[in-house]
């Protein structure tokens, strides 16, 4: 599970580089996210634009990361592709995350 | 009716590989994007459930049959692992979003996208049959 992190102002941006977050990648994703978010920042945005598939294990891992960062930094998501968006919508987890259309929109908006 | 048979081995990595192989071939490769995406979500959940629960992480055979009918796919998935508790499908219980549950979404996704779900324990086999609508896909 490849993730790339950059600091944009006071916002930590983490970009998922693989095209799937599934049962085979979920544990590694969670561990890498825990390491990468150890640096202080005002906000954390996870850019999922390259992720074409996320299953319930991947969703669970994203929720786990959200809980790891709470309550100081709510995990924000950006760039959901159609299948990923559908999994969030069908499980109603789209109601608990701040979801930006794209990374640029997320960075423009105040957390 | 042409039927496609796909064999794979349980385990998160081999399920991912098997799913990739299946979706690249017929009949999935001829489906509209939205229908293919629904098939990928449902099959990933079904296959990972088998790997995690029926086989409890051990390797074991999984067989998948797919037939395309007008407006739908008919699927059958069989494994030789442990039966479903009570020999029946688990109830549809979606965790409330506020619970921040990290699991329990799989069967809800299957039920939301598949229809006519049927589970049977046949001797030492688990057999799951269901339909997927493919109305967005041309003939």
Question: Which key phrases capture this entry?
Answer:
heterodimer, A: 111 residues, alpha/beta, Transcription Regulator spoIIAA, 5-stranded mixed β-sheet, two-stranded parallel sheet, 4 helices, B: 139 residues, alpha+beta, Heat Shock Protein 90, 5-stranded antiparallel β-sheet, 5 strands
Word description of this protein:
The complex is a heterodimer of chains A (111) and B (139). Chain A has 111 residues and is of the alpha/beta class. Chain A contains four helices and seven strands. Chain A has one domain (3-108): STAS domain (Transcription Regulator spoIIAA, 2-Layer Sandwich), CATH 3.30.750.24. Helix content of chain A is 36%, strand content 25%. In chain A, the strands form two sheets. Chain A has a five-stranded mixed β-sheet with strand order 1-2-4-6-7. In chain A, strands 3-5 form a two-stranded parallel ribbon. In chain A, strand 1 and strand 2 form a beta hairpin. The mean pLDDT of chain A is 96. Chain B has one domain (3-133): Histidine kinase-like ATPase, C-terminal domain (Heat Shock Protein 90). Chain B has a five-stranded antiparallel β-sheet with strand order 1-2-3-5-4. The two termini of chain B are 14 Å apart. At the A-B interface, helix 2 and helix 3 of A face helix 1, helix 2 and helix 3 of B.
